[in-house]
Amino acid sequence: MTPEYGIKLAVHLISTDFGDHAAKVCDCLLRKGTLALDDIVRTTKLSPQQVKTYLKVLIQHNCVQAFAMEHEGGCGEGPVVVTQYMLLFDNILHRMRFPKLLAIVSEELDKECEELFEAFLKHGWLTLQQILDRVPSNQNDGNCTVQDALRGSFTKLVNAHYVERCPAPDPFLVPPDEEKTPARKHDANSAKAVEELEIGEQCDIAKATPSKAKGFPVITDTCSDINGDKSIDNPPGVVIGKKRKQDALKLDTESGATSEKDVPWRANYKELVCHLRHKACIENVRARMDSGAAIVLSAMLEATQSAEKNVKEEISVPLSINTITEAVMQSEAGHSMTLERIRASLVQLGCHPNGVGADETYNIGTILCLFLIQFISS
To answer: Where is the RNA polymerase III Rpc82 C -terminal domain (predicted)?
Structure first.
């Protein structure tokens, strides 16, 4: 359950960026939970058209997730499918971190990627066509060159997982078992029920979010490819990029897009916030312990990042001592570290071995919990 100060902060952020009516919708969903359109209209006292408008705005900016769910009809009618709207509280708070997220892209990639990523933060969902439309009309002479540069920057962002495909506009979710679904109570005795409800809502968000296989496909046709230029490396009659398009066609159909350019993309907050979290942990370890412990922690976090399911992961997957050693020595700073020094750093980090010999593994647990509170407060 979102605390009162959290509600006030989220409403303030939405009010500042999108106005009072959007803030009313935000406040309603925060206090009442996931609701259908009619319920939001009834609670906010806004007109249906106003509510629809601001829901679209909040969806566009990754603050609300819509999904369809089947419900029993009344008066003997058959089941009906109702679209419901769920507020993404964490995504609203991430709006305060936009400068930090932009700094990550600036440090890891280049200026062009930073400018393109800033457009994702500013506009929310963007299609490739909208990205290409950023080319000024007075640059016709070098239009293909500029478009190819934009495609290159876009590809870098996708490969780094800093942007991802948007979920379907309103994915269909299987309704929960009513006997297992806790009632929406807010008294002190229903804390467990509320926690279970929030877990259920997180599951709904996960179901609506594309998997990694679907979230990061990218087709990198150049402007000349689109104009029909062919390559001697491809079979006769095959335009460059066509084979890749065939692989992505099914994904485009699922999202309602008619072509690659119509597929919407968005900033991948999860990846970026994990990056911030890791950076905060590493710098804290460097300040409180030493550079050796920071190097080992950095290597372990990088090796386990792909297995993290959420930004509040409390314990990492286990890594063998050989994997840790290899990860450390792959970094320039870790070239001088011996196995004994790596083991000593693991002890500093509170990572105790599980098993011996070939079965010797370590995971990061307490160190992440220790610095998580400090990261969230920043």
So the answer is: 153-339
CA–CA gap between residue 303 and residue 328 (Å, rounded):
10
Of 61, 120, 56, 117, which Cα lies nearest the Cα of 83? Answer: 56
The whole-angstrom separation of Cα 95 and Cα 112 is 21
What pairing do the DSSP bridges indicate for beta strands 64-71 and 172-173?
parallel
**Long-range contacts of the stretch 107-111 (C-beta < 8 A, 24+):** 108/160, 109/153, 109/156, 109/157, 109/160, 109/162, 110/153, 110/156
Tell me: the pLDDT tens digits for 171-207? Answer: 666 665 544 444 444 444 455 444 444 545 555 555 5
Contact 70, 42 (CB under 8 A): no
Domains of the chain, each with CATH number or no CATH: 4-94+172-208 (1.10.10.10), 109-165+210-267 (no CATH), 271-377 (1.10.10.10)
Q: Tell me which DSSP letter residue 134 carries.
A: T
